[in-house]
Amino acid sequence: MSQLPTWRVRVMKKVEDWxxxxxxxxxxxxxxxxxxxxxxxxxxxxxxxxxKPVEGDRAAGVNE
Length: 64
Known about the structure:
Distance between the termini: 41 Å
Strand content: 25-35%
Number of strands: 4
Low-confidence stretches: none
Oligomer: single chain
Order of helices and strands: EEHEE
């Protein structure tokens, strides 16, 4: 059985952060991120493949 791809999902801990989870697709990755210890909430539609850089425009309302 092949290993699931890894996704990077934007979450809120005490401060905004990213976590890596393994899932079949972006939606499943966001659901899985809810169960990572310390995660308070997950930003919807934030999952990206782990090999894609987390650069570019920051979302509105996101502080440095």
